[in-house]
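User: Last request for today: this protein with NDP, please.
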Amino acid sequence: MHRYQLPGIAVGVIENAIGTFSLPLGLGLNLQVNGRDYIVPMVVEEPSVVAAVSFAAKIAREGGGFHAEADDPVMIGQVQVTGYGDPTEASRKLTARKEELLALANSFHPAMIARGGGARDIEARLLPAPEGARGEPILVVHLYIDTQEAMGANLINTMCEGIAPLVEQITGGRVFLRILSNLADRRLARASCRIPVEVLADFNLPGGAIAEGIVQASRFAQADPYRAATHNKGIMNGIDAVAIATGQDWRAIEAGAHAFACRDGQYRPLSTWTLEEGHLVGRIELPLALGTVGGPIKVHSAVQAAMKVLRVSSARELSMVMAAVGLSQNFAAVRALGSVGIQRGHMALHARCVAVTAGARGLLVEKVANALVSAGQVKVEKAREILAAMMGEGEPAT
Ligand code: NDP
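Assistant: Here's the final one, the structure of the complex with NDP:
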C-alpha cells in the first residue's frame, strides 16, 4: 500500500482532504536522450499520449535519438516597490547595494550556498505604468536564485519576503508583492532530433510527403495563435504526464510554458520542424522549473517509484528528458495531422475508454473496443449493444 494514500498523510498535505484520487500510470518507451535510454513514467487520463511518445521516440532513434541541454536552475523572485520617489534614483540605489541585498537573501537559506546555489544576482526593473504617463512606473526588484535540485517556489518566496524591509529602507518606498515568477526563462530546457526523411514513410505515403505535412503544421503554428495553442497543448500532454508522475508542480510548468510562448508578443509554438539536408529536424525550447527534492517528491511513494524507473540524477537531467518527451508527443501529433488525421489512431485507443464506460472489464475491454472500431462507431451506446451481445454469447463478464 502507498504510504501517501493513507488518509492521515493526505490530510497532512492539503486542507479538507477526504481521500486520494488515482489516475492511470503508464510507461513511455524507446526514449533516447543524449545517448541514454529512459523508461518514462507518465500519469495521464487521455488515451494515445503514452503510445504517441513511445512511437515517436522509436522513430527518433533512427536519427540518433534526442539531443538535449538545460540551463542552470536559476529562478526569478519578484519584489514590487511603490512610492519610491525618483525612479532612476531608486533603481541606482538598489543596484549600488546589490551585494548587501544578496547577502541578506542568502542568510535566509544558508544551506543553498553550501550546495553551490543561492541568490546570485539582483536587477532593478522599471516598467511603464499601466495607467500611462500619469501613473507611477512599476519598480520591481528581480532576485536571481540558483535553486539547485529544488523547483524553488518556497525558498524564493522566503528570500523575497526576507529582503523586503531592506528594499524599503534603501528606496524609502513600500513593498507590496514578494513572490517567484513562474516565467522561469532563465531555466530553459532544449531538445532536438534529426530524423532521416525516408524513415518517415507510412500510410502508403513516402517519407517526403509525411515530412512536408509536419513542416506545414509547424509553419501554421508559427503564424497562427489559434493553431499554436493546440500545438502546445499536444506538447504539454507529454510534459504534464511526466510532471505528475514525478511529483512536479504542473500548474507552474504550464504557466511558464505558455508565458514563454508569448515572449515576443504573439503566442507561438514551443517547437518547430524544418527540413534540413534530407532530414526532418525538430527543436523545442521551454522553461522547466523542476525539482528532485521539495513539494511532494520525497513524500509520495509512487513518485519515488517513478523516479527510480526514470533513473534521472538531477532536476536538469529530468528537464532534458521532459523536453524530449514534449517534442516526441508533438512529432506524433503533427505527423498524423499533416497526413491521415489523428482520429483514426486516436479513436482506436479512445474505443477502450468507451468500452470501459459501457461496462466492459478485463479482456472484454479490448474485444469491445475492436468491435467498435470495426463497426466504425466509437460510441457508448454501440459499446453497450456489443457488450450485451457478447455477454449473451457467454463471454465472461471480466
Ligand atoms: P520545498 O520548500 O518543499 O523544498 C525545497 C527545500 O529543499 C530547499 O529550500 C532546501 O531546504 C531543501 N533541499 C534539500 N536538498 C536540496 C538540494 N539539493 N537543492 C535544493 N534544495 C534542497 O520546495 P520548493 O522551495 O522547491 O517549492 C516547491 C513547492 O512550492 C511546490 O510544492 C509548489 O507547488 C509550491 N509553490 C508554488 C508556487 C508557484 O509556483 N507560484 C507558489 C508557492 C508554492 P534547506 O536549505 O532548508 O535544506
